[in-house]
Amino acid sequence: MQTAEQNASLWPSGVTRDADSFMHRGISAEQLAEQYGTPLYVMDTVDVAERARSFVQSAREAFANTTAHVSFAGKAFLSKEVARIVSEQGMYVDTCTWGEMQIALAAGVPGRRLVLHGNNKTDEEIRLAVEQGFDKIVIDEPGEPDRIARIARSLGKRARVMVRVTVGVHAGGHEYISTAHEDQKFGIALLPAGSAGSVGADSADGVATDASSAADASSAADDVQSTAFFDRVAHGPAVQTLHRVLELGDDLELVGIHSHIGSQIHDADAFIAAAERVMVLRRAFYATDGYVVPEIDLGGGYSVAYVPGDASMDVKATLERIAAAIHEDSARAGLPLPVVSFEPGRWIVAPAGYTLYRVGTVKRVALGEGRSRVYVSVDGGMSDNIRPALYGAEYTAEVVGRGALGGASDGDSDGAGRSSGETVQARIVGAHCESGDIIVHDIELPADIARGDLLAVPVTGAYGRTMASNYNQLLRPAVVAVDDNGSHVMMRRETVEDLLGLDVSE
Ligand SMILES: Cc1ncc(COP(=O)(O)O)c(C=O)c1O
Ligand SMILES: N[C@@H](CCCC[NH3+])C(=O)O
């Protein structure tokens, strides 16, 4: 069942647009570009706070009979300012590397509100998490309980841990962001090797998916309630790892079971299927070890709309459905409700951000049979947004400023007759030495698009800056925050001095 908001807005709540203007809380796109330069990530921090508050509130309402925690997945976007904003709305922060831990700590988020993930954690990362009293360290492989216990013992502390389980629900916008099937690097299998029980759930958001239909998820969910499934779970690797954590109880406190099935998931059934499987594991572990796992964490993955007509996950409705499944299972088993936690990243920040680019070369390429395509080159590209190249992700763009730099284009357009209403079939490409450096594959743009025009690409608040690179030695763009007090630099633009500063050869 789809639980989605249709035609979600692609722009932050503070943006108002009409044919002639693009205003962001009283500042025009052209003003932002002139003041801070391009390419530029713009983040509406009021919107970030509103989205964080709304997710936390939905979780608290859906789980009114128990406790709900929501962690912000810092991999989506992390700066000290955003860490503080989401913390103020009651969120914890989920980190998975030394760098993410350092930023969250530097923001002043206390360890008791931090989570550490990672399929290949270093001893230093584990040590820092234990020293700082992280709320959870999420175990990702069967050898990790012993490693974490050893480090905790050496520090004279007890580490709070969760065990991450691959529940066999295959969901997510792309193979690379789907994480709960067995044949990938994350987590510990729910079921013994060779055991049937994987289901597919679709996301279909314009990025390719190899998953099967949502109907599979619900039919398999029935099977999940069978004694045979329960027995297989009771003999699976996940139960064994939970058991090992209990054996190391002097050094480890078993806080919970974790499941993250993937990212950019449109189909709420996938979350329900995953929650049901986690609850079977909780029951199976109680049956074998008599321990009531206090918390379950269902990860992130809530979808957003990237292009017009896309749906975005209706978080409130989905959390209510998950809550119903968890209540039902707990009641059936006669176990107390667990604390329930979530780790959204994209849903909190993606629609709050957009990228401004200045148009450079405009070139018409003949495709044969009288057809042509206009290649519109901008001053950024795959180094500030790798998602189209990596996942085939779709974006859209709008012209939000005209010709600040002046000058004629390199193509047919000479800057005359602007905004005539005519459009051309265009492709927005970056400045990299790479033909796959495409930001928007197919888009209609004004026929008079020209050098110096300003383009805005919406929904780049997540996995843009955090996945940015220096390919071709492009300088990573600044992130500018816009709120009701105006705008300010949240993360400065990289400089040539930064590049040369890293190159320490004589
Ligand atoms: C463990 C974990 N939690 C949370 C997230 C956040 O996912 P999303 O940004 O799709 O909400 C991810 C990324 O997929 C993840 O790997
Ligand atoms: N980076 C991915 C998703 C996050 C994967 C994290 N486990 C994206 O841009 O969609």
UniProtKB/TrEMBL annotation:
The protein's name: Diaminopimelate decarboxylase
The keyword Transcription belongs to this UniProt entry's keyword annotation: no
Function: Specifically catalyzes the decarboxylation of meso-diaminopimelate (meso-DAP) to L-lysine.
Phylogenetic classification of the source organism: Bacteria, Bacillati, Actinomycetota, Actinomycetes, Bifidobacteriales
Oligomeric and partner information: Homodimer.
UniProt pathway: Amino-acid biosynthesis; L-lysine biosynthesis via DAP pathway; L-lysine from DL-2,6-diaminopimelate: step 1/1
EC number of the protein: 4.1.1.20
Amino acids binding pyridoxal 5'-phosphate: 301, 343-346, 463
Species, as recorded: Alloscardovia macacae
Catalytic activity of the protein: meso-2,6-diaminopimelate + H(+) = L-lysine + CO2
Residue ranges of the TM segments: none
Ranges in a coiled coil: none
Binding site for substrate: 346, 387, 391, 434, 463
InterPro entries hit by this protein: Ala_racemase/Decarboxylase_C, DAP_deCOOHase_LysA, De-COase2_CS, De-COase2_N, Orn/DAP/Arg_de-COase, PLP-binding_barrel
Residues bearing the modification N6-(pyridoxal phosphate)lysine: 75
Keyword tags: Amino-acid biosynthesis, Decarboxylase, Lyase, Lysine biosynthesis, Pyridoxal phosphate
Orn/DAP/Arg decarboxylase 2 N-terminal domain segment(s): 56-190, 234-350
